[in-house]
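Quick start: read one record
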Amino acid sequence: MHQVCHPANPRIAVNADLAPLRSITACRTDPAFEIRLQDVQWACGGQSLVQTGTRCTVELLIDEPTGQAAHYSVTGEHGARSAVGRLNFVAPMTTLDMQWSRGRVQSIVCMFEPSSLGLMDRQFGDWQGVDPMAALDIRNERLEMAMGWLYQELRQPSFASQHQVTTLLTLLALETQRHFGARPASGGAGMGKLSARQLAVVKDLIEQALPDSVPLQTLAAACGLPSRELPSMFRSTVGMTLRSFVAGAHIARAKLLLCDSRLLVKQVAGRSGFESASAFTAAFRRATGMRPQQYREANGLGSSPPGSDGE
């Protein structure tokens, strides 16, 4: 049995003659998480059971330029087999029957406990609805972006690196839960309020459409409601207007993009759904009390090139 660093992390049983040549090129550990950049070389194909611990696991495979990449697949119920994709998620307390071919695999692997990151929402303990097979090849631009930034951070740590890693992992945890969806509440919605399912649908449509906006009619139709009722029911449910939530979603996306110091502020503005850098700066300052460049500097993200602020 090959034991990884922490008992809450996944474990894989490998016969001695199938043991991989593993190189961990970078590692960041904390009571709440562990992140590894690893390079695994399988001398031949094999099969084994992988058992996860109490942590969520997200893996992003790094492209293998030589074309000698190993290929993984998982056998599910009734013998159905699914290929492991570039971006994969494994929920806590999951057992996978995994097979692999000869070759090399480079990846970044993040293992984390949402509650230990300060995310106390009760739904973070409910992963029973996640289909293990469907989660092994997910398409999510934000998850892949966050994993890519973590990869760069481990390779070349920046100023305030620990803070950036924790922030990105929090984003990873939130986006993972959002991607797989909130579980419907057992009871119905309160009078004049959205149900858990309707609220999840609205939030998902808004966040998936960024930087564009979703017409009110589309949101209401997805919830099975008249357009005139959705805004008041949304406000009654979450305590803020639908317009304010949409504006906050654009600002949240901007904060994420500002973590990439290669992007000019005007580029962040466009990718966050603002018509101009000046409109973005004004909205960002109203929401945070800081200009975009001040936000970058306050979070140790460095300065943009002269003239790049676009303000």
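The first strand starts at residue 11 and ends at 12.
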